[in-house]
Amino acid sequence: MNPITNLYEKSNKKEKLIIGLMSGTSMDGLDIALCSFRGYGVNTKVELLHFKTADYTDKFKKQVKSIFSKREVDLEMVCLMNEQVALTHAKLINEAIAEWGYQNEQIDFIASHGQTIYHAPKSLHGIQELPNGTLQIGDGDHIAVHTGIITLSDFRQKHIAAGGEGAPLAVYGDYLVFSKEGEDRIMLNIGGIANYTYLPGDLDASKVFSTDVGPGNTLMDQYVQQYFDGLYYDKDAAIALKGQVNQALLDNLLNNGFFKTTFPKTTGPELFSLKYLQEAQSVTGTTNLSKYDVMATLCRFSAETIIEAINKVLDKMTSPAIYLSGGGMHNPLLLRFLKDALPHITFKNTSELSVNPDAKEAVLFALLANETLCGGQVYFGDRAGVPTVCMGKISLPM
């Protein structure tokens, strides 16, 4: 069949099977979500059929980390890993499809986020004559060819081209999937970077926004990987619970212009790095602080940035509910900090809305693909940071 005819026919199916992929800054594995879609826009009906996180090998993690979030890297390795990430993802997709009892030809589309290796909004790079920038590797053509499935990828570039910062993109999917008339909602995702989407109960899309709020898990993960051999993150806050929050260090960590800028905004580990922590420790004379106290303080730091950001929208909300997703929702100390500071808010997670919270971001990229394929455009108002656009480049398998 002519590949363009195939694309047209699949795009017009009443039910589409789309695999959404997400590989975040923690790089613990590839989230693979097989979703069924009917309709588009405000009439979207999505069902999560299968989900898994496919583990990365230690060698692959090390290769990606060698070029991740660094101003100076081996350009040859960047070039090679663009292909290697895609080939690795294609292999993991093929294995998941077989594991779930499907044939590749039964899957209509793949929606691939890729692997972010550098995020450079103007607010971070500060070069006025240059634009916002972001780079995700994992070439869509390689995924399409090695799975035989039409692939949409590189979603963030259109967002930047239309005046956004390339992140966060959750606003589009959150509004279509999780809005509910009569209930004001905050969809709080605590990944490497913490972000949330504000969903008004009156369903007015022009009021909806999504914003990064702070470091989420990234600083804690970086610290654990640097100072605790063999660990990639602080499971169940086992390390942080052994320490005490250092107030002087916490206050200095919170003293950054990012937290004073207006919503929506975006950031990344390019700002919230071990260098950021080391400079704060140097200023506050806490370089000899125990590793457990540092982890407790970093956990509190992530919590405080989330709390402050949520408090900024509470006056707009009646009977607010927060729906959690992302790896940080499994950190009991972080959740305790949040609940103690926001006792009047109901905390839930997206499983109560029929979406596995660990799968949420992968599902949302599948939804972005569905919107592009169906030509859907919900108008989000003429606002900076929330352009009304379809996203994703289309790669054909032949």
Write the layout of secondary structure elements.
Blueprint: H1 3-11, E1 15-23, E2 29-38, E3 45-55, H2 58-65, H3 75-99, E4 109-120, H4 122-125, E5 133-137, H5 140-147, E6 150-153, H6 156-161, H7 170-178, E7 185-190, E8 194-199, E9 209-214, H8 218-227, H9 247-253, H10 274-284, H11 291-311, E10 321-325, H12 332-341, E11 346-349, H13 360-374, E12 393-395
Parallel strand pairs: 1-4, 4-6, 7-10, 10-11
Antiparallel strand pairs: 1-2, 2-3, 4-5, 6-12, 7-8, 8-9
Helix pairs in contact: 3-5, 7-13, 8-11, 9-10, 9-11, 11-12
Backbone shape: globular
Q: Which structural class do the helices and strands define?
A: alpha/beta
- Tally of strands: 12
Largest sheet: 7 strands, mixed
What percent of the residues sit in helical stretches (DSSP H or I)?
25-40%
Q: H/E series, N to C?
A: HEEEHHEHEHEHHEEEHHHHEHEHE
> What do the pLDDT scores average to?
94
Low-confidence parts: none
Strand content: 15-25%
Looking at this protein, list some descriptive labels.
12 strands, 398 residues, seven-stranded mixed β-sheet, alpha/beta, five-stranded mixed β-sheet
Question: Would you kindly provide a written description of the structure presented here, covering whatever features stand out?
Answer:
With 398 residues, the protein is of the alpha/beta class. It has 13 helices and 12 strands. It has helices at residues 3-11, 58-65, 75-99, 122-125, 140-147, 156-161, 170-178, 218-227, 247-253, 274-284, 291-311, 332-341, 360-374, and strands at residues 15-23, 29-38, 45-55, 109-120, 133-137, 150-153, 185-190, 194-199, 209-214, 321-325, 346-349, 393-395. The strands form 2 sheets. Strands 1, 2, 3, 4, 5, 6 and 12 form a 7-stranded mixed β-sheet that branches. The protein has a 5-stranded mixed β-sheet with strand order 9-8-7-10-11. Strand 2 (29-38) and strand 3 form a beta hairpin. Helix 7 (170-178) packs across helix 13. The chain is globular and about 70 Å long. The N and C termini lie close together (10 Å).
